[in-house]
Specification:
Blueprint lengths: L4 H14 L19 E3 L6 E3 L6 E7 L4 H19 L3 E7 L10 H12 L10 H13 L10 H10 L4 H9 L6 H15 L8 E4 L4 E2 L7 H7 L1
Parallel strand pairs: 3-4
Antiparallel strand pairs: 1-2, 2-4, 3-5, 5-6
Helix pairs in contact: 2-4, 3-6, 4-5, 5-6
């Protein structure tokens, strides 16, 4: 279990207060050095948020223009960020772009931004929980059928998610973070193998149990963490 120094300081103060002492514990609380990491999946087509030793692991297949994917983030995004941050959950995001009507469209650009946000930039790197909040911002600002957010707008969303300035600047650059065509082909093939009859998004897959999770059960995430 990872415990932040801030929690330790608070606990000490609480204990001292309980026994009637008036001694003040001084010092500035430091951020937890074991913040949830952010990296690419081994195949290079997913973004992984969370600790490797997290007891629960899922893969989320999502399309940037999919309204049901936006609903998933609205309903469970905060919980995902929380569980990622405390080390209880590792999430691999696998974007697909089948709703784009042309190359380099809305879904492709948002997908590319996800991979840019996962890169280290001039010594700065986002955390897994910050990445999750970035996903929430992006899916909350969809423009289905339209051009989608600009690179600068996505960079502002990265900042709102708490990402470092250098990482946000990387998003604003619009550089290639991934070969989107190859990413889409690989992730859709993987998605098809999971469910050949209902191949769509959002799909949440538990690789440990080799099963597609029922995300329309309002308690699916808590059940996953508790199992």
């Amino acid at each position: 279990m990872r415990i932040s120094p801030a929690v330790v300081v608070f606990t000490i103060v609480l204990m001292l207060g309980t026994v009637g002492c008036t001694k003040q514990v001084s010092g500035t609380a430091q951020p937890d050095p074991n913040r949830a990491p952010l990296e690419l999946s081994e195949d290079g087509y997913g973004v992984v948020a969370g600790f490797d030793d997290a007891p629960a692991t899922i893969e989320i297949f999502t399309e940037p223009q999919c309204s049901h994917c936006a609903d998933l983030q609205a309903d469970f995004g905060d919980q995902l960020a929380y569980y990622i941050g405390i080390g209880a959950l590792k999430v691999t995001y696998r974007p697909v772009t089948f709703l784009d009507e042309e190359a380099g469209g809305h879904s492709a650009r948002v997908s590319n931004a996800l991979f840019l946000a996962a890169e280290e930039s001039d010594g700065q790197k986002a955390t897994g929980a910050q990445f999750q909040r970035f996903v929430q911002e992006l899916w909350a600002n969809q423009d289905p059928g339209g051009p989608g957010p600009t690179d600068d707008e996505m960079a502002d969303m990265a900042k709102q998610a708490g990402m470092p300035e250098n990482v946000a600047s990387k998003v604003a650059s619009g550089d290639e973070g991934v070969d989107v065509t190859e990413m889409d082909d690989a992730n859709f093939e993987y998605l098809f193998e999971i469910d050949v009859l209902d191949t769509g998004t959002p799909t949440v897959y538990d690789p440990a149990k080799d099963e597609k999770l029922d995300i329309y059960d309002n308690d699916w995430l808590n059940k996953l963490i508790q199992s």
